[in-house]
């Protein structure tokens, strides 16, 4: 989510300014101020953390399927790896940019980008291995059952469609594809931004909101909320109604 928010902030400020600079902005990229560098650093931090957390999710799911009876995964390690490793990588990148290539708000591509793009590719490679191994286990278990090939194929295809956004394998399409023309490059950027922005939505939709247990819990919570409101309305003290009577006196003239 934070990665998508940073993408929106970054491109709404810098991309629009690069396309149509005004007399007030004077092209922010060339100004090279401290806050635009900070924005670039935060953008890279949340981008790397997205891949590290996808690796944590892939490792957790792989342990559930491949090592079902093993000890439960330590979540403290996930916190340290998911948030700590991106901080270390971005700190190294920032120190190199500040001393060696301090220009253009750190938005241009330089050789120091490999300090975080290299680990990103490593996370994707490990997740691809996890996904292939999980699919292999599912195929092996399905073959052991007395199910026809068509139903097996449907279940395997459904598993692949579900696992691709969890393991982040779809990012390989935008990572390794290098378009030759300018229009193709812009299409690649649009596809990459759409994938980054909708990653969390699809994962939460598949594993949370489409889960029958989660749906039953949400319905139970909603019904409890409705019952609490109805009970509070019943026990609410009613305002007593006071009736006022007016007496009219007629005076007879003497």
Biggest sheet record = none
CATH topology of the domain at 2-173: Rhopdopsin 7-helix transmembrane proteins
Number of strands: 0
- Give the helices and strands as they follow along the chain: HHHHHHHHH
Note the total helix count: 9
**pLDDT average, as an integer?**
74
How does this model look, in words?
There is one protein chain. The chain has 254 residues and is mostly helical. It has a domain at 2-173: Up-down Bundle (Rhopdopsin 7-helix transmembrane proteins), CATH 1.20.1070. 74% of the residues lie in helices and 0% in strands. The chain is built from 9 helices and no strands. It has helices at residues 2-19, 28-31, 34-66, 75-100, 114-144, 149-167, 171-176, 182-209, 212-234. The longest helix is centred in the first third of the chain and has 33 residues, at 34-66. The protein is globular and about 60 Å long. Residues 243-254 have low confidence and may be disordered.
